[in-house]
Amino acid sequence: MEPTNEVTYTYDPSKMQDGGKDQMRFELQDIAVGGAQETCVLSDQEYDAILEKTTEEGGSWKTAKYKCLKAIVMRMAYEVDFSADGLSMSLSKRYDRWKAMKDELEAEMQWPTANPMALGKNAPDGGHYFYNGMNDNPRAWFAPGPFREV
After folding, report:
1. Burial of 79 by CB count in 10 Å (0-12 exposed, 13-18 middle, 19+ buried)?
2. So what's the pLDDT on residue 50?
3. Helix (H, G, I), strand (E, B) or coil at 139
4. Phi-psi region of 32 (alpha: psi -120 to 50; beta: other; left: phi over 0)
5. Is residue 146 in some structural domain?
6. pLDDT tens, 79-136?
7. Average pLDDT of the chain?
8. Are 46 and 52 in contact (CB under 8 A)?
9. How far apart are CA 75 and CA 39, in angstroms?
10. Per the count of CB atoms within 10 A, which of 55, 68, 89, 115 is most buried?
């Protein structure tokens, strides 16, 4: 099949649960396809490419959504507000909405990590972050319990 250079902007609401571009358009609310590039942020080909690449890399739907939001935010970052002869357009509001969605998803996807400077040779105590018996409860030795002979 020969690749085409035609850029398309389509949305089929009946396919919004198929795990494809229509679902992604719905979740990101990029569904005003009537105006093509004037109203949509990403084309069908861009959504398909991001979804395909994420699937190839073994990424989840959430990862693909994050990558789409990242692409949208980068594309929308240059849009500014302007007014002329009483007409004003606040294009930055579109950016703010998608940036907030990206930041929220990014925070949701964060994993706690250890500070590498606290481990190993660079640790404040010279590398002894863990030590033998660090989880022992000193008061447990004085209290009789079901597993301790008195």
Report:
1. middle
2. 92
3. helix
4. beta
5. no
6. 777 788 888 877 777 888 889 999 999 888 887 766 666 666 666 666 665 666 777 7
7. 79
8. no
9. 13
10. 68
| 111 domain-assigned | yes
Alpha helices in 10-114 (DSSP H): 21-28, 44-56, 61-76, 92-108
- Specify the number of domains making up the chain: 1
Q: Is the pTM of this model over 0.70?
A: no
Nearest to 27 by CA among 94, 78, 106, 98: 98
Q: Yes or no: say if 63 and 33 are a contact pair by the CB < 8 Å rule.
A: no
Biggest distance spanned by C-alpha atoms of the chain: 90
The boundaries of the domain holding residue 49 are 13-138
Q: What is the mean pLDDT of residues 129-147?
A: 65
